[in-house]
Specification:
Length: 735
């Protein structure tokens, strides 16, 4: 493409372009020669990316002045067949009923081509490449070349023969021209759905089977299903799990069908299972059934066959050992509490359903929380093993519950349980108890009273109304106190006299219930009598007096407290005075020479070599130890610590007074001089024997090295504590 101005012969003109593809994204797709006006494409163009471009061409002189008005340039990209058709899905799923007529719609496949759909480049056509399996014909389906609709083209679809077809579909552009067009493929899976065109059919007309009577249950309404036979087989040609396949079995013999049920088979030609429920050998030893089977769905139209099939079934019941059961479970009996031990309560017997087996039933206790009952092992007679008490913690709502076991001796043995409930009727066996046990009242009457009541463990009518009365003995009770009845359960206790000394009084009260015969109990209530204020409340002094202390006792206690406090005060004053005297006493030694805190006892070294006469033969290995082992009593080794009572050394006070240091040193010195066990008790200590033939010399050959010319003047620099030592050794020349 070239643009040119008519004025290019008169002046020099420069050409340029603007717009999308030039100076706007995508940038520099087009370029123009500014002198000649020729336009060029700088890179390959894709119609599927952008189909057209709108540019504007400009012409200016050398000074940039506009020479011509801008012109619009429209550039269209011509399509080429560079894109294959693409299916929306690689796998398509469809279905069609078996026996469908030709022309029946199955499914639609769709492919899209990115090329221009108005040209042959984007026009897609469909065709079927292959069909698997090719039965009963290799062309069972066809496809509309333009729309992609797949329909049946031949008859003979049979699910029992072919359940699924796999069809490969090809899509080609260029209107389906295989020489020039581009192609792609997809898979179509066509499932043949089942219709009820095959009725069920028994493979055998008669069947014999055996069942066990352990399906029976002693409890009415309870049934257990068990497999009786699997020999009654049927041919079900429909699709498994569908209404066309499922067979319904129904017994036709009147009066026996309630014992049996016939569930659906779980697979093609599977044996039909018959279940029995609540059959009893003692009632029926055999059953004769006629079983009919049919599909749940009706046969498809046009099928000229019977929709059902029948077969005869004979079922024999086999006897097995069944558990004994209690006909009345739970069994409830009523009796009064307190019956004596050994009383017969009831017969709690079980029934063994095995009438044709000679078996014995034995009874035992399974649960008896209070251990109140016994059961006869052979006949189930229940007797009491203890007195039954309705007020026991084992009673819930007046009922005591125990569980018993009945077991037969069959092979294998079987057992059943039964529950016995005993409703205990209350008798008047508990006397009432007075409440409260303690109370408080003023020493003068008419100020307050004590409300009293009673508690009884029995129940109505063996409880209230209660009768409250004071005993005649001792006579002081009725003289000092009186009882006023409020109602059937409450009364008031108050003072009869005008004044009663403060203290604690035990007031006996007789409480009688309304049982037949009535029971009474004499209870004691502790009453604190105390002085009261104007509001009727006990005062503080009155509370103490009511606790049982008289005025004399209170005064004696106060005097003892005062004496004790005085003694403590005198002891404190004496301790302070003694401490003051110890601080004012003069020191026995100069404070600068007080070295008591520097005297540390480490240990006693013992005598030196100059003090002792050593027998070096003791350091040699003895030939025997007889002189040690055969030592006579009372003779000890010279290196042993003597055994005897040790003297008591004085204990140094924690904070000693300076004036006591002399006494402390003197007492310790006397104790050490009189201590036979204090080291050095002997300087000869045998640590070990060197042995004979030692090349070592005697330790006596070691001499102490000392010189009298040593200078001790440096002791003067060590402070006042070493002043005495410096005077003794430092001034040797002057002395």
């Amino acid at each position: 493409l070239q643009i040119r101005s008519d004025k290019d012969k008169e002046i020099h003109i420069r050409y340029s372009i603007t717009g999308v593809g030039a100076d706007q994204p995508p940038m520099e797709v087009f370029n123009i020669d500014p002198v000649s006006g020729r336009m060029y494409v700088t890179r390959p163009m894709d119609r599927e990316e952008r189909a057209s471009y709108h540019l504007r061409a400009h012409a200016v002189d050398m000074n940039g002045n506009k020479v011509e008005n801008p012109i619009d340039l429209y550039i269209y990209v011509i399509d080429m067949n560079d894109n294959r058709p693409e299916f929306i899905n690689q796998v398509y799923n469809g279905s069609v009923d078996e026996g469908s007529k030709p022309g029946t719609y199955v499914m639609t496949v769709t492919a899209n081509d990115a090329d221009d759909g108005t040209t042959a480049n984007g026009m897609v056509r469909y065709r079927i490449v292959t069909q698997t399996p090719q039965s009963p014909s290799q062309n069972m389906f066809t496809i509309n070349s333009e729309t992609g609709d797949i329909v049946t083209v031949a008859a003979g679809l049979d699910r029992e023969k072919v359940q699924q077809y796999i069809v490969i579909v090809q899509a080609t552009d260029m209107e389906g021209n295989l020489n020039y067009g581009l192609s792609n493929t997809a898979t179509a899976i066509i499932t043949v759905t089942d219709v009820n065109d095959n009725p069920p059919e028994f493979t055998t007309s008669t069947v014999r089977a055996a069942g066990w009577c352990n399906a029976e249950q002693p409890q009415k309404g309870v049934r257990t299903s068990v497999v009786i036979t699997r020999d009654l087989t049927g041919s079900l040609m429909g699709q498994a799990g569908s209404r066309n396949w499922g067979g319904m079995g129904l017994p036709t013999t009147t009066g026996t069908h309630s014992h049996f049920s016939f569930p659906q088979p779980k697979g093609p030609r599977e044996k039909i299972q018959h279940f029995a429920a609540a059959v009893d050998y003692e009632m029926n030893r055999a059953f004769m059934l006629t079983v009919m089977v049919s599909n749940q769905a009706p046969l498809a139209s046009g099928i000229q066959m019977s929709f059902q099939s029948t077969a005869g079934v004979t079922i024999s019941v086999t006897d097995v050992n069944e558990a004994p059961y209690f006909p009345t479970n739970h069994k409830l009996i009523r009796l009064e509490e307190g019956v004596p031990t050994g009383t017969v309560l009831t017969m709690f017997s079980a029934v063994d359903p095995d009438r044709f087996m000679q078996q014995a039933v034995r009874y035992s206790k399974l649960s008896d929380p209070a251990n109140w009952l016994n059961i006869n092992a052979t006949n189930g007679q229940i007797t009491t093993a203890a007195v039954l008490d309705r007020e026991s913690d084992y009673i819930k709502n007046n009922v005591y519950e125990a569980t018993f076991l009945a077991a037969d001796n069959g092979i294998p043995p079987a057992s059943g349980t039964g529950t016995l409930q005993i409703y205990l009727i209350d008798i008047n066996d508990n006397a009432p108890e007075l409440l409260p046990k303690e109370a408080q009242i003023c020493e003068k009457p008419n100020l307050n009273v004590i409300n009293i009541t009673a508690a009884d463990a029995d129940i109505d009518p063996n409880v209230g109304p209660f009768v409250f009365e004071l005993p005649s003995v001792p006579s002081a009770v009725r003289k000092n106190w009186t009882i006023t009845r409020l109602n059937g359960d409450y009364a008031q206790l108050s003072l009869r006299i005008m004044y009663l000394e403060a203290g604690v009084y035990d007031v006996p009260i007789i409480v009688t219930d309304s049982g037949n015969p009535p029971l009474y109990n004499t209870s004691v209530i502790k009453v604190k009598v105390c002085p009261c204020d104007e509001n009727g409340d006990c005062t503080t002094i009155g509370a103490v007096a009511a606790a049982g202390l008289g005025t004399g006792a209170i005064i004696a206690i106060l005097i003892c407290i005062i004496i004790l406090l005085t003694m403590v005060l005198l002891f404190v004053v004496w301790m302070k005075r003694r401490e003051k005297e110890r601080h004012t006493k003069q020191l026995l030694i100069d404070p600068e020479d007080d070295v008591r805190d520097n005297i540390l006892k480490y240990d006693e070294e013992g005598g030196g070599e100059e003090d002792q006469d050593y027998d070096l033969s003791q350091l040699q290995q003895p030939e025997t130890m007889d002189h040690v082992l055969n030592k006579t009593p009372g003779v000890r080794r010279v290196d042993e610590r003597p055994i005897g009572a040790e003297p008591q050394y004085p204990i140094r006070p924690v904070i000693p007074h300076p004036g006591d240091i002399g006494d402390f040193i003197n007492e310790g010195l006397r104790a050490a001089d009189n201590d036979p066990t204090a080291p050095p008790y002997d300087s000869l200590l045998v640590f070990d024997y060197e042995g004979s033939g030692s090349t070592a010399g005697s330790v006596s050959s070691l001499n102490s090295s000392s010189s009298g010319d040593q200078d001790y003047d440096y002791l003067n620099d060590w402070g006042p504590r070493f002043k005495k030592l410096a005077d003794m050794y430092g001034g040797g020349e002057e002395d």
